[in-house]
Amino acid sequence: MSNKPGTHQFTVTATEVLLESPILGVRRDTVVMPGGSSAAREVVEHFGAVAVVACDGENIAMVKQYRQGVGDRLWELPAGLLDIANESELFGAQRELIEEAGLEANSWSVLTDLITSPGFCDEAVRVFLAQDLTEVPRPDVDGDEEADMVVKWFPLHEAVAMVFRGELVNSIAIAGVMTADAVIHGRAKARDAAEPFTYRPTALARRRQARGSVPDMKKL
């Protein structure tokens, strides 16, 4: 007899690492299904990431960056991997905001956490709201996609309109823009920047740190 729906424990009985690359891994888990059979489930492992809605009160900073996965340049929020061992989400967001937008902020809060593709990937992203902004020099970049990055300020209402026109399609950016619009206009409240990030991925980070890949966990 099968368990009552919603109560089965999906126990992992075996795990095999199929792929290791600098920014991700792929593993195959053998999982006990309802009824007692076993099934293989491939999981793309990720370090997790952060993104930032930097708002001066009326406008937000966005970046246009080439993405090989879709072969196009996309408007996105300043964002980046949590690929430094034991780095907090807030520190990672502060670092990325300087590197990608040349901004620092005195006020930080959490807009939302999202799991981008739970059907096959453990990637989770924390989106911050950064306010009380100051311009600072961006570090020099050479060779990576960031060297081709465009930074532009958009009125928040225009960024919202871009979502509905299909011009802003990055899921993290959509989540950040829509939640920021709700917070900025008083329809919702942001959370404390130090609130625990429950779904931050750990499997890839643990494996890399066990191999001595610190502080930069992208090094194989």
Automatic annotation (TrEMBL):
Please give the InterPro entries that the UniProt record associates with this protein: NUDIX_hydrolase-like_dom_sf (IPR015797), NUDIX_hydrolase_dom (IPR000086)
Molecular-function annotations in GO: hydrolase activity
Task: Read off the CDD domains from this record.
Answer: NUDIX_ADPRase_Rv1700
Record GO cellular component, one term = cytosol
Domain Nudix hydrolase: start-end pairs = 45-176
Keyword entries, A-Z: Hydrolase
Q: Name one Pfam family in it.
A: NUDIX
Q: Name one GO biological process term.
A: nucleoside phosphate metabolic process
Matching PANTHER family: ADP-RIBOSE PYROPHOSPHATASE, UDP/ADP-SUGAR PYROPHOSPHATASE
- Please report the name of this protein according to its UniProt entry: Nudix hydrolase domain-containing protein
Name its species.
Corynebacterium deserti GIMN1.010
